[in-house]
Amino acid sequence: MSPTHLRKSNGGGASLMAALVIVSTFGAVNGIILVGPRVYYQMARDGTIFQWMGAVHPRFGTPHRALAIQAVWASVLAASNTYGALFSRVIYTEWIFFAAMAAGLMLLRRRASYRPAYRIPAYPLVPILFISASLVIVAMKIAEAPVDSAVGLGLVLVGWPIYLIWARYRSSAS
């Protein structure tokens, strides 16, 4: 069977899936655009990144410099290749941080002074399952595309020495 024959015989399933991915992406992009720059803004206010990134636009009240930085970075990533390559290189690494966040919350709950407003049912089973599922996603992506995965992990790891340099600069400046 030729690829052309396969495309014609799928009954529109591929087109339907493509449309669902597009709709899902537009829904997610809204949250990403709203949240990401505000994280950079708060990091700038906390002194963990360049202070100029925390500037607020005088008319619109938005973190305009952080929005611009995110737009440039997103454009670089989008121009890097296909969605599959983008996922293999960058997006899956977020699951490492999702797992770390859940583990951090579990550690936080061990503190005597911690008083959560909400108790999760079946604790600690639910966060352990979430951490496990997150790490499975990461492991599967590394096994599926080791070179692209290494590029993505490399991009993440570039941040570590930058953070160490910034922390040293901050401590010497104060």
Textual characterization of the structure:
The chain has helices at 3-8, 13-46, 64-79, 83-89, 94-109, 125-144, 146-173. By secondary structure, it is an all-alpha fold. Helix 4 (83-89) packs across helix 7 (146-173) and helix 6 packs across helix 7 (146-173). It is globular and about 65 Å long. The N and C termini lie far apart (69 Å). The relative contact order is 0.07. The mean pLDDT is 84.
Task: For the structure shown, list the relevant keywords.
2 domains, 0% strand, globular, 174 residues
Short description:
With 174 residues, this protein is mainly alpha-helical. Helix content is 73%, strand content 0%.
Give the overall shape: globular
SS-derived structural category: mainly alpha
- Report the total helices: 7
* Biggest sheet details: none
Number of spatially distinct domains: 2
Compressed to H and E, one letter per element, the order equals: HHHHHHH
Radius of gyration: 21 Å
Total beta strand runs? 0
Q: Indicate the mean pLDDT.
A: 84
How far the N terminus sits from the C terminus, by CA atoms, comes to 69 Å
- Strand content range: under 5%
